[in-house]
Amino acid sequence: MTDLGDVPKGTLVFVDSNIFTYFLLGGSRHFEVCKEFLKRVERGDIQGIINEIVIAETWYNYVKYKIIEDHKIALKDFYLFIKKKPAVLAKADVSEVAEIFSIPNLHLVAPPQSFIMESLGSGASLPLLSNDAFHVITMRYANLDNIATNDPDFDAIEEISVWKP
Q1: Which CATH code is given to the segment(s) 2-164?
Q2: What is the pLDDT of residue 124?
Q3: What pTM does this model have?
Q4: Residues ≥6 apart with Cβ < 8 Å to 148
């Protein structure tokens, strides 16, 4: 494990959704280090790489937290609440999510379908659930070996360096 604050200047880093979530929701003990990391991306000290799944996960986490907070419901009740009141989703302001994904030096990478299918069919299984495995596939496509995340599951992937808040 290496400290997120120590990512060398000029490094290309895949940025997992939890880094954005910690920043957007504030209040976490990881807020400050994630804020500084994202400032470094914005300045161009670091080039951040994401995929569509990172955007979707961050968006989902942000909306879930805001609805739980605004409607004072328990986490375990979130799904039932949304099923009963789906209009609440349309009222959620996600402008902060859109703003964070618009910062300079943050690049969206989308592996082509052929690369994804080849990766899935290669028999080289990863000890990860689908979204995290797709992050590694994206990293392989972009020739990246650095990830900014607080997810310990990535520690099992020997080919990458994990930078944690």
Answers
A1: 3.40.50.1010
A2: 63
A3: 0.93
A4: 4, 7, 13, 14, 15, 16, 19, 37, 48, 163, 164
